[in-house]
Design the sequence.
């Protein structure tokens, strides 16, 4: 999945991936530092991942069907 990151950090990618999920209406992100909160808010403000990147990430994370 490294090739999907582009110029994003892993944290940004994961947060935006979560925000991209069509069935989720909220995301809980814990932090103990105000700087982390600000950084998370800046990432969230970028919005969801581009649709093609989200689709590729879902494909990477979906386990293959069980073999017969």
Sequence:
């Amino acid at each position: 999945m490294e090739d999907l990151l582009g110029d994003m950090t892993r944290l940004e990618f994961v947060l935006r991936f979560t925000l991209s999920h069509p069935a989720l209406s909220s995301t809980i992100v814990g932090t103990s530092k105000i700087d982390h909160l600000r950084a998370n808010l800046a990432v969230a403000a970028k919005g969801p991942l581009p649709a093609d990147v989200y689709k590729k990430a879902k494909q990477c994370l979906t386990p293959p069907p069980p073999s017969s």
